[in-house]
Specification:
The chain is mostly helical and 306 residues long. The chain is built from 19 helices and no strands. The relative contact order is 0.05.
Length: 306
């Protein structure tokens, strides 16, 4: 297979090269240690900078090959990682280069290239660091990501929050909880979404506290949506608490009613078992139009709910 790949490189048959390298990578776990080491060295020699550049160019031309290309590129080792970083730093926008971010972010040894970027005075470098550190999956990436949540540039802050949200490590929870109180409404909303992605009932109370303190309407709705995505009893309790709170005499302009109706609407969109339980209780115990809206979501009359 390696000889066939070398021939394909000489003939610049890049699709064949991609296919063959992937096949070698897939069979390597079943090889003996010495054979596996030999294949690793052979692939590193084969994947010279021109070969890597050709595979990357092919991935841009054929987007459906980008995911497979990212897997293959990681076999190039640190020289490949340095090339990916060079290419990413040259771009104004990271969106078209998602497969390169995934390739580099999947190379754990490359964290030594990412950490200096996190300390860069250039916002573009700091944002790139946040994107990569969020993908590398190593505990030592969490403190620099937490620091980047306080970066002056909004895009860097949001990338850092998203990066922390990718970690299941408990160490990522506290920086995200602190971000719920950030001065930026966008950061608060994104932190709520990141916390809710953990799908843990323990997150419900911090999100409820953030909701009660939130004054920016778009951020409030985003936090409410995050809470509704948690399929747990704690989320049911938090959401029904908002929807069933008795309205005061001075509910000026019906603001509280609008918030309660927003709870019903977002619960319907969430479509989880916890959301349905909350709707059942709101339909049974809620006031006026809120109870009617919850019952309508369930497809029943309010008096039929028990």
């Amino acid at each position: 297979m390696l000889q066939e790949t070398e021939a394909a490189v000489r003939q610049q048959q890049w699709h064949t090269v991609l296919h063959n390298i992937q096949a070698v990578l897939r069979m390597m776990p079943g090889l003996g240690e010495d054979t596996r080491r030999h294949h690793t060295y052979a692939l590193r020699r084969l994947m010279s900078r021109p070969v890597l550049e050709a595979l990357i160019a092919q991935a841009y031309r054929v987007p459906e090959e980008q995911r497979r290309t990212a897997e293959v590129l990681q076999a190039g080792g640190m020289p490949a990682a340095e090339l990916f970083l060079d290419l990413l730093q040259q771009s104004e926008s990271l969106a078209p280069h998602e497969f390169l971010l995934d390739a580099l972010g999947g190379m754990k040894d490359a964290i030594v290239l990412m950490l200096p970027l996190a300390r860069s005075s250039r916002a573009a470098d700091a944002r790139l660091a946040a994107e990569l550190l969020g993908r590398v999956g190593l505990p030592e990436a969490i403190p620099p990501l937490a620091a980047l949540v306080q970066h002056p540039d909004e895009r860097v802050r949001l990338a850092a929050v998203d990066g922390l949200g990718r970690y299941r490590d408990k160490a990522a929870v506290e920086p995200l909880r602190q971000a719920l109180g950030h001065a930026s409404a966008a950061v608060r909303a994104r932190a709520g979404k990141a916390l809710a992605s953990r799908r843990s009932g323990a997150i419900a109370m911090p999100l409820l506290a953030a909701l009660e303190a939130e004054r920016e309407p778009a951020a409030w709705e985003a936090l409410l949506g995050a809470l509704a995505e948690i399929d747990a009893p704690e989320a049911v309790a938090a959401l029904t608490r908002i929807a069933l709170e008795r309205r005061g005499r001075f509910d000026l302009g019906g603001a509280q009613a609008r918030r309660q109706l927003a709870v019903v609407r977002i619960l319907k969109s969430a479509n989880t078992s916890a959301a349905k339980r909350a709707l059942v209780r709101i339909a049974a115990e809620g006031e006026g139009e809120v109870a009617l809206a919850a019952a309508a979501c369930l497809g029943v009359a309010p008096t039929a709910v028990s």
